Amino acid sequence: MTDLTQTFAALSDPTRLSMVEKLMAEGDLPAGELVAGYPISAPAVSRHLKVLREAGLIRQRAAGTHRYYAVRPEAMQTIARWTMDHRSFWEGSLNRLDSLLALNPETEDTP
């Protein structure tokens, strides 16, 4: 599995995506605060965090008996680059479609 494939696979789960979004908004958090309000068990939380760590989306650091989690900026940069690469593709494709439609204006009035 490529890094990007693993990244998107990890983010495809709503709980994991929400965890990453929370870390992006609030910064480093201990696991307990990260999942406050989620109706999932501690083992499920551990599994979700493991998937995110293995995908390279978050990092873990120990401080005493606590484990803190944070988003890895490099992972977010990779996603942003991929998104921007594809945005250019789609913008170019839509611009070409606009040009084609401009050459044949009667197709715009067709239902």
Word description of this protein:
The protein is α+β, with helices and mostly antiparallel strands and 111 residues long. It has helices at residues 3-11, 14-26, 31-34, 42-54, 73-103, and strands spanning 29-30, 58-63, 66-71. A three-stranded antiparallel beta sheet has the order 1-3-2. The relative contact order is 0.13.
Question: What is the average of the pLDDT values?
Answer: 87
Tell me the series of helices and strands, N- to C-terminal. Answer: HHEHHEEH
Low-confidence stretches: none
Largest sheet: 3 strands, antiparallel
Estimate percent helicity.
Answer: 55-70%
Percent of residues in beta strands: 5-15%
- Rg over CA atoms, rounded to whole Å, is 20 Å
Ends distance: 44 Å
Query: Which strands sit side by side, in order, in the main sheet?
Result: 1-3-2
Structural class: alpha+beta
Instruction: Categorize the overall geometry.
Output: elongated
Tally of helical segments: 5
Overall number of strands: 3
